[in-house]
Amino acid sequence: MTKAPAFPSRYTIVLGNEKGGSGKTTTAMHVIASLLSEGLRVGSIDLDSRQRSLTRYVENRKAWSEVNGVPLAVPDHRVIDRSHVDSLKDQQREERGRFEIVFAELTAANDVVVIDSPGSDSFLSRLGHAVADTIITPMNDSFVDFDLLAQVNPETYELGRPSLYSEMVWESRKRRAMADGGTIDWVIMRNRLSSLDAKNKRRVEEGLEALSQRVGFRVAPGFGERVIFREMFPSGLTLLDLRDEKAGGGLSMSHVAARAEVRQLITTLELPFLDNEQRIATA
């Protein structure tokens, strides 16, 4: 008999990066699908009420499931709209109220909550980061994205001061510690990795290694530059769904490699409610 995983009173995973196009929503949906495949109850929150990328992904998933008659597990999903009242103080009070209500409802009804934050700084994004147990920051493997974490000397590639997003995560860690004594595990996910051994790729790797010691994060292997990740959004499918012949047919070698990347990410996250055997089985 398989022993049921022991859950904390709540566990929250936040996808965060103040730069668009880093793969937050794709990563969020694959993390959600991985947890759902383990039989966990998963709630999800979309904090980007303008683009609603995660919301559309979930809606596409439900629609594809209904049209094709293939049952797919979906999260208990909510989107939190930004306030449009005139006063900044009133905006923040209204948004805090909306967030606290939704977050309380989802944590009460689910084992894990996954939050997708917008690709910009906002009050709602800061609220989401402050309740995280794990923050996943996907970043394209370039110094354009690295600049969001820390400044780099263009001549020597030596690290300068941490950048705005690193400072925001630091503030979130302090707020979380003050709120309930909790800690936040920060994982930087190198995304859209090239298979070529380029000098720039090695410099990014060395920079992240050095910065991780200063700022306090772990580095996870992300997803390669694969068309399949972009193709699945309209259907709402993930690589985990391609196990089913009805949900996309057989797997190519590229699909198998991409699923291995998802599996490696889940393993690297070291989620406390998944033991090693479950992590290996996921994806």
What does it look like?
This protein is an alpha/beta fold. The chain has a single domain, classed as P-loop containing nucleotide triphosphate hydrolases (Rossmann fold, 3-Layer(aba) Sandwich), CATH 3.40.50. Helix content is 45%, strand content 15%. It has ten helices and nine strands. It has a seven-stranded parallel sheet with strand order 3-2-4-1-5-8-9, with helices on both faces. Strands 6-7 form a two-stranded antiparallel sheet. Helix 1 packs across helix 2 (53-68). The radius of gyration is 19 Å and the shape is globular. The model is unreliable at 1-8 and 278-283 (pLDDT under 50).
Rg (CA only): 19 Å
What do the pLDDT scores average to? Answer: 85
Q: CATH superfamily, please?
A: P-loop containing nucleotide triphosphate hydrolases
- The number of distinct helices, counting runs of at least 4 residues, comes to 10
Look at the helices and sheets and give the structural class: alpha/beta
Strand order of the largest sheet: 3-2-4-1-5-8-9
List the helices and strands in order.
Answer: EHEHEHEHEHEEHEHEHHH
Distance between the termini: 22 Å
Q: From the 3D structure, determine the CATH topology.
A: Rossmann fold
Q: Could you give the count of β-strands?
A: 9
Number of domains: 1
What's the overall geometry?
A: globular
Strand content: 15-25%
Which residues sit in consecutive blocks of at least 5 with pLDDT less than 50?
1-8, 278-283
Biggest sheet descriptor: 7 strands, parallel
